[in-house]
Design a protein that fits this description.
By secondary structure, the chain is mainly α. It folds into 2 domains: 68 residues, Orthogonal Bundle (Rna Polymerase Sigma Factor, Chain: A); 120 residues, no CATH class. The two termini are 27 Å apart. This is RNA polymerase sigma factor 70 region 4 type 2 domain-containing protein.
């Protein structure tokens, strides 16, 4: 992959990489560090994957985030809630608060599907679980989030909408979920409960929200640095 393809690929997916890492670490500065390292490692290994291979990028980010989390476990226990409340993206913070009592894997799968919008087989490869297990996790987490949005709500009313029923069973396709997103954004489903509407609007807003400007600017500088560093190294080798 040449420099032009790499930059287009990374910049078009940078927000998704940021969301994913943030959901793993729940800390802005650590997220920036891991995203920066992910981009640097992908640049160094760009010949190993194509400019459409997001799985390689997310696997790299996942490994780096695991290393970062293992070294910051005690700190995160002490300041976890403060990190969420003080984050610059309130919508992303809302997602993290709704999922903070879930297992890391449950929150990760939900993030990959609802925020990053990966297909089931890609999520399965990334987290090392079968597709049926991924669907089961999605079903459980989606119902938990809905219940936290509306503790008094019930799921029986979902039967009036076939796609929404599939969504809460974890078996809806990306295309069906995009259809639901469109319905909710246009307010076409007038008979849907407030809990369902808030649930989907949360992910609509997350999907359209960029990473913090400060992080974006720093990543741009990082990319320029690593690419210029490679050019300088090649230049020096040529004149040795």
């Amino acid at each position: 992959m040449d420099k032009s393809h790499f930059n287009t690929f990374i910049f078009s997916n940078a927000d998704k990489i940021y969301y994913y890492v943030y959901c793993l670490l729940r800390n802005e500065e650590e997220t920036h560090q891991v995203v920066s390292l992910t981009i640097e490692q992908c640049w160094m290994e760009r010949k190993k994957f194509s400019h459409t291979d997001m799985i390689y990028v997310f696997k790299t980010a996942r490994k780096l985030a695991a290393v970062k989390a293992s070294g910051a476990e005690n700190r995160m226990e002490l300041s976890y809630t403060d990190n969420l409340e003080n984050a610059t993206n309130p919508i992303l913070s809302r997602f993290c608060i709704l999922t903070q009592d879930l297992s890391p894997l449950q929150a990760e799968v939900m993030c990959l599907r609802s925020m990053v919008r990966l297909r089931m087989d890609d999520i399965s490869i990334l987290v090392g679980l079968g597709i049926n297990n991924v669907q089961s996790i999605l079903s459980v987490v989606r119902k938990i989030i809905r219940a936290r949005i509306d503790p008094n709500g019930i799921l029986n009313d979902l039967r009036r909408n076939e796609v929404l029923t599939k969504y809460y069973s974890g078996k809806s396709t990306i295309e069906e979920e995009e259809q639901l997103r469109l319905y909710f954004s246009r307010m076409d489903l007038s008979d849907i409960t407030v809990a369902d509407r808030e649930h989907f609007q949360l992910f609509l807003r997350i999907g359209n929200a960029p990473m913090p400007t400060d992080c974006s600017d720093r990543l741009l500088l990082k990319i320029k640095e690593i690419q210029n560093r490679g050019w300088r190294s090649a230049f020096l080798k040529f004149f040795k």
